[in-house]
């Protein structure tokens, strides 16, 4: 169930990245945000119903709700023309809580790669806070490219690894993933940093969304 949800999180992050980069009109992106947001609320509800006293299953559901509410908030906001500050400050909340879920993956679940992925989501949602909550439009292009990288690297890739039974929870895999993530973000900063000549930014930034659904519960 987690791998299927994660795949479609990659889809909505991809579309929202295109929106931030000015390739997709904001209202056109709203529909997929609503579809994926609804899925990310329905799935954890099913998990909770069947969780009983299983603390790990309850924690997994709690993580998924963070992203489901984000996508629903974005989709409704885009269609209704709402100011972005609400979803922006909610993104800051998600960013902070994601650090806790990273720790759960590192130390309790012993799923080190998803610990790194949760940290990536924390950083991405912090960028959403900067662009949407603080309205720092000069970071829109950088945020769009980081969202695009996160769509493939933190959602689509792990989803297919899980679906094909090639996923590994090893520390070595996590270390490679972490180094790759740092290099990608650094490279994107050089290419799309604020003030760089030729860096594109859309007139109306809108919120993508993350992440997503990890093996322990996002």
TrEMBL record:
InterPro entries for this protein: AmiSUreI_transpt, AmiSUreI_transpt_sf
One Pfam family matching this protein: AmiS_UreI
Membrane topology: Multi-pass membrane protein
Cellular component aspect of the GO annotation: plasma membrane
Key word Cell membrane present: yes
Subcellular location: Cell membrane
CDD domains: UreI_AmiS_like_2
UniProt entry tagged with the keyword Cell membrane: yes
Keyword annotations: Cell membrane, Membrane, Transmembrane, Transmembrane helix, Transport
Protein name: Transporter
Organism per entry: Actinomadura decatromicini
Source taxonomy: Bacteria, Bacillati, Actinomycetota, Actinomycetes, Streptosporangiales
């Amino acid at each position: 169930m987690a791998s299927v949800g994660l795949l479609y999180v990659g889809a909505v992050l991809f579309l929202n990245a295109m929106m931030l980069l000015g390739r997709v009109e904001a209202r056109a992106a709203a529909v997929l945000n609503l579809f994926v947001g609804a899925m990310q609320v329905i799935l954890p509800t099913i998990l909770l119903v069947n969780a009983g006293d299983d603390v790990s299953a309850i924690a997994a559901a709690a993580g998924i709700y963070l992203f489901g509410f984000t996508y629903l908030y974005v989709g409704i906001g885009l269609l209704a023309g709402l100011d972005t500050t609400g979803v922006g400050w909610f993104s800051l909340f998600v960013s902070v809580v994601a650090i806790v879920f990273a720790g759960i993956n590192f130390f309790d679940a012993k799923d080190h790669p998803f610990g790194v992925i949760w940290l990536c989501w924390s950083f991405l949602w912090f960028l959403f806070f900067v662009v949407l909550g603080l309205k720092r439009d000069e970071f829109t292009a950088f945020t769009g490219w980081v969202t695009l990288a996160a769509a493939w690297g933190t959602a689509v890739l792990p989803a297919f690894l899980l679906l094909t039974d090639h996923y590994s929870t090893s520390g070595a895999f996590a270390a490679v993933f972490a180094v790759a993530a740092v290099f990608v973000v650094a490279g994107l900063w050089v290419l799309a940093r604020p003030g760089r000549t030729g860096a594109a930014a859309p007139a109306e930034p809108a919120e993508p969304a993350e992440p997503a659904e990890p093996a322990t519960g996002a």
